[in-house]
Sequence to fold (256 residues):
Amino acid sequence: MAFSGKVALITGGGSGMGRLAARNLAAQGKLVAALDVNVDGLKETADGHDGILTIPTDVTDSDSVENAVRRCEQELGPIDRVYNAAAIMPTGLLMDQDISVIHKIMDINYGGVVNVAKYALPGMLERGRGDFINFASMAGWLPIIYLGAYNASKFAVVAFAEVLYHENRNKGVRFACVCPPPVATPLLQQAEDNVWPKTFDSAPPIEPQQVLDAIEVTLEKDTLWVFPGRGTKLGWRARLWFPRLMWKIVHRTEGF
Ligand SMILES: NC(=O)c1ccc[n+]([C@@H]2O[C@H](COP(=O)([O-])OP(=O)(O)OC[C@H]3O[C@@H](n4cnc5c(N)ncnc54)[C@H](O)[C@@H]3O)[C@@H](O)[C@H]2O)c1
Fold:
């Protein structure tokens, strides 16, 4: 594992990949601050796992994020690693989705990343060490029908993470921007509960641990992009080089 530090702060720590990252690090004797709006989820994450401090936090609320960062540093120590994993993914056609839902997706998925960067990253840059990991998605590169609001939020994360990296490289902090295809976590239930894009069926979801392992490989190489799963990088290239072809495939797959 590429992590030699001691303290990690993880948003979205109450479920899925945030929970898995928190438990993995705690099992290695690291100290973890798990942040989430889901208090029950946080409790479950920490149950039976020493070393996980749970801090109920709404990442859209900059005061809440600032307090969580301060509490983490006071109780656990300087932050050596951040996972920005909090997100939501309600699906639907853009003209069918409620306006408040579209804004909420952006506030959490993109605004949350901004808030955590503004409060947690300055200390890491000052100390000249640490890992700053942003979860984007393949949806941050490949727009598809039914996922427009989530696509927009993840395109924003991709752009923010890329510029953040270029503005701060060579300052001792390593950056990773994670772009997985569908992963087997509770997030997918939000598509099940709304509209399931048939495009998701092009391959079975990958396992959360695969994503976390791919992050370590990227951090060790000191590069930015993480494309976990077979064929993910190819899909990314196809979108860059053949966007019209990709849209043809999306229309054919979704049936309109
Ligand atoms: N699961 C996938 O298919 C997939 C694919 C690509 C990228 N991702 C990204 O990976 C990251 C982790 O996703 P996951 O699959 O583990 O999802 P998940 O749904 O299992 O966990 C996300 C967590 O974010 C929390 N959250 C939501 N709103 C919040 C808020 N306002 N403040 C704080 N926490 C909040 C939720 O309560 C939840 O515990 C996300 O950024 C997601 O977009 C997931």
